[in-house]
Amino acid sequence: MTGHAEPDALARGSLCGRLTRAEAEDIQLALAERVRTRGVKLTDVHTVAGAAAVSANDTIDAAAVLLSFPQLEVIACSAARATAQTPYVAGLRAFRDGKALVAAIEGLRLRPDLVFFRGHGIAHPRGCGLASHLGLALGVATIGCAQRMLGARAPLSAGEPGDCAPLVDTRGRQVGAGVVTRHGSRPLLVSVGHLIGLGTATALVLACSRGQVLPEPLRRAAAEARVAGADKTADLP
């Protein structure tokens, strides 16, 4: 198995229309069955990307930054803007931000081996958060990195870089890990998005963090998204 697969038609198509909450939740349940928790290995990863979005009213600005791995040197950046089709609802962010995020990633001149998202993967009440949903939509390995809980019990409160503790859902299943990435900081909540195992995901988060809370690709993408959001002169697609 590798970190690439055919894009999932349901995952991709669900980002482009207006859905009721019940419809969106049903789609997440269906997609959760398609997530692969095995795939890319650490030795397969030569490029990593981060993707992040900011919103103002119904406008979503997203940015993606591609870096070499393990050097973490910037190779390319891309930005995209879209009009949100649905309002923000906790646990359904992929349906609001996903179109712009996918466009930003596909705007990179090279396809990344792996993408970090600021959001959950399978550590989600229906097993398919933003990182899993977009991993399926893109057909690429993804990792979810979050700082707030969503249907799971909190692990460590703080610690030393490299400390890890299981992230457990309400039924007692491990769905991720709390990973300390910066001295004295609360753990980053790491979960499988798609096409990767938790051990590899955790190793990549630590390798890309460089003493910061967020992995470097995500930190750079968040900064680029804020810049894109401040520039309101671009036309909406």
**CATH level-four homologous superfamily name:** archaeoglobus fulgidus dsm 4304 superfamily
Question: Which strands sit side by side, in order, in the main sheet?
Answer: 3-2-1-4-5-9-8-7-6
Instruction: Give the assembly state of these chains.
Output: single chain
Rg, alpha carbons: 16 Å
Largest sheet: 9 strands, mixed
CATH class: Alpha Beta
Number of helices: 6
**Mass-distribution shape:** globular
Mean pLDDT: 92
Q: What does this protein look like?
A:
With 237 residues, this protein is α+β, with helices and mostly antiparallel strands. It has one domain (9-230): archaeoglobus fulgidus dsm 4304 fold (2-Layer Sandwich), CATH 3.30.2170.10. The chain is 28% helix and 26% strand. It is built from six helices and nine strands. The chain has helices spanning 9-13, 21-32, 93-106, 130-138, 198-209, 216-230, and strands at residues 47-56, 59-68, 74-83, 114-118, 141-146, 152-153, 164-169, 174-179, 188-194. A nine-stranded mixed β-sheet has the order 3-2-1-4-5-9-8-7-6, with helices on both faces. Strand 4 (114-118), helix 4 and strand 5 (141-146) form a beta-alpha-beta unit. Helix 3 (93-106) crosses helix 4. The radius of gyration is 16 Å and the shape is globular. Residues 233-237 have low confidence and may be disordered.
